[in-house]
Write a structure and sequence with these properties.
Layout: E1 2-7, H1 12-15, H2 21-37, E2 42-45, H3 59-69, E3 74-77, E4 80-81, H4 87-100, E5 105-110, H5 115-121, H6 127-143, E6 148-151, E7 156-159, E8 181-185, H7 191-199, E9 202-205, H8 210-226, E10 229-230, E11 237-239, E12 242-244, H9 248-257, H10 259-273, E13 275-278, E14 281-284, H11 301-307, E15 310-312, H12 314-328, E16 333-337, H13 346-363, E17 379-380
Parallel strand pairs: 1-2, 1-16, 2-3, 3-5, 4-5, 5-8, 8-9, 9-11, 11-16, 12-15
Antiparallel strand pairs: 6-7, 10-17, 13-14
Helix pairs in contact: 2-3, 2-13, 3-4, 4-6, 7-8, 9-10, 12-13
């Protein structure tokens, strides 16, 4: 099993005017340096355009910058929001990024979920259709040789034949036939997971409970088989916050009383507790985190630290990860959110050190994943 990180980035201090955007960026790069130094495997960056507390509109730029600061860390986007890009230009930039990182780049594709991002780009309700068309275009540019033409509903590609005069088109990915692609899902029967399975991409599960995770894998694996692919748990990434300190008590205190706890209590959990309507039935997204028999009122930070997150000493964290992996039947990578400890960075630096140097070697044999980045998420059957 691999261990990695996911940076939204959470930046409440930036929203409050106490941090500049440059400081937010530099903290992310510091995390990348520590992750690389301490032997963690992956770091993903999100994309949001109108969300002040998650202010990263350009994961490709962060990957390029982090690539120059690191040597072995794989760097991914979770995800490029395809409706907000010309897929021809994005395909070229990502191939270039794959070369810049020496094949350490992991692609991630998503339709975008924040309505204000969609409003900014004027895409209306067409995000899912635009994403599907963009993926078709990107994969064609990555894997096909011109000339070819694709006339879609939203974009048209007219790939010329190779010209001896201009010595191009010339770009192809560093990783052949293309970088690994991940798609993220939340709901138990996530349509994004089904889409990933049909295309042979890797699944990445958001922070949800065991029952939802098991359903997600069932959705993914069944669709993969039906589509002629062999589902591989080594390519299944799951997000679940991990925090390590010298003792269980210290880890719990640092999480609850520090930036991680404040972020969850003030920003994430309120969103999870909001009641929405689904098919005439009220529900809250946080219900996906709960144990059977619990109600949304019982979703508290204390409960999550004690029963959901993986928090504790190295021994405790190894034990919890081992149990987590066994209950799921095996996974490829465990990813946790990053938090802004920049005002007192030592606890976070030490957490990453313990995670990479003490926990990582002890859980590395739990999953079948290899160290080298692979071009495909799901092998063809």
């Amino acid at each position: 099993m691999d261990l990695g990180l996911f940076s939204p980035p959470y930046a409440q201090a930036y929203v409050a005017g106490r941090r500049t955007l440059q400081e937010v960026i530099e903290w992310d790069l510091q995390i990348a340096r520590w992750a690389d130094e301490y032997g963690l495997d992956e770091l993903f960056f999100a994309e949001h355009h109108t969300i002040g507390h998650e202010p990263n509109p350009a994961p490709d730029l962060m990957i390029a910058a982090a690539g120059r600061e690191t040597q072995r860390l794989r760097l991914g986007a979770a995800a490029h929001l395809l409706p907000y890009h010309n897929p021809i230009a994005l395909a070229d930039r990502l191939m270039y990024l794959d070369h810049m990182t020496g094949g350490r780049y992991i692609a991630g594709f998503a339709p975008g979920s924040f309505p204000t991002d969609g409003q900014l780009f004027g895409v209306g309700q067409g995000n899912a259709k635009m994403m599907d068309e963009a993926i078709d275009i990107i994969m064609a540019i990555w894997t096909r040789t011109g000339p070819f033409r694709i006339e879609g509903e939203f974009w048209t590609v007219d790939m010329p034949a190779h010209s001896d005069q201009w010595n191009g088109p010339h770009l192809k990915p560093f990783q052949r036939p293309h970088p690994e692609v991940v798609m993220t899902g939340v709901q138990p029967t996530s349509p994004t997971f089904a889409d990933a399975a049909r295309r042979g991409f890797s699944p990445m599960s958001q922070q949800v409970g065991m029952a939802a995770l098991l359903q997600q894998w069932e959705t993914y694996s069944r669709t993969a088989v039906d589509s002629g692919h062999t589902p591989d748990r080594a390519n299944w990434r799951i997000m679940r916050d991990v925090f390590v300190a010298e003792t269980d008590e210290e880890a719990r205190r640092l999480f609850l009383e520090g930036p991680a706890g404040r972020t969850w209590d003030e920003l994430v959990l309120p969103t999870f507790r909001v009641v929405r309507d689904r098919g005439g039935k009220p529900y809250a997204l946080g219900e996906l985190l709960l144990d059977p028999g619990m109600t949304i009122d019982q979703l508290t930070l204390d409960w999550m630290v004690d029963h959901f997150f993986i928090v504790g000493s190295p021994d405790t964290v190894v034990e919890k990860i081992t149990q987590f992996n066994e209950e799921l039947g095996g996974i490829g990578a465990l990813l946790s959110f990053t938090f802004d400890f920049s005002q007192d960075p030592e606890p976070y630096r030490r957490h990453l050190q313990l995670l990479g140097q003490e926990v990582g070697p002890r859980i590395s044999t739990l999953g079948p994943r290899t160290a080298a980045p692979g071009p495909h998420a799901v092998a063809s059957a």
